[in-house]
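Backbone-to-sequence.
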């Protein structure tokens, strides 16, 4: 009788450990693919209460598994690490260069279309 009771306890703790590991894995996957998420979204994705979500995210941050910041009043979790100044400026410069390239291509295509229209009118 005593042995049966202990095996049930062990099975329950094993199930709890497995559940916790699965949730920790899911938190890592969410942190990898999302930059920001609301607590409500995370409760739906993880099928947990808001307190449990916050607890699992906090444990993952403390252990160094993920980076996250929780804004409790707004209910938003940010998983993206803030960029340093030089890195941010390089990203902006790259974005500006891409934008200028698109503007240049667009003006070239507009000029080309105008020339084609002038030739079509002349014929």
């Amino acid at each position: 009788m005593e042995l049966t009771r202990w095996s049930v306890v062990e099975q329950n703790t094993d199930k709890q450990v497995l559940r916790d590991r699965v949730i920790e894995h899911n938190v890592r996957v969410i942190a990898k693919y999302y930059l920001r998420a609301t607590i409500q979204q995370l409760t739906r994705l993880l099928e947990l209460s808001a307190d449990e979500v916050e607890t699992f995210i906090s444990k993952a941050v403390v252990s160094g598994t993920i980076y996250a910041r929780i804004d409790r009043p707004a209910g938003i979790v940010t998983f993206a690490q803030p960029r340093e100044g030089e890195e941010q400026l390089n990203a902006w410069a790259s974005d500006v260069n891409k934008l200028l390239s698109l503007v240049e291509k667009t003006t070239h295509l507009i000029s080309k279309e105008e020339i084609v229209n002038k030739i079509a009118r002349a014929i």
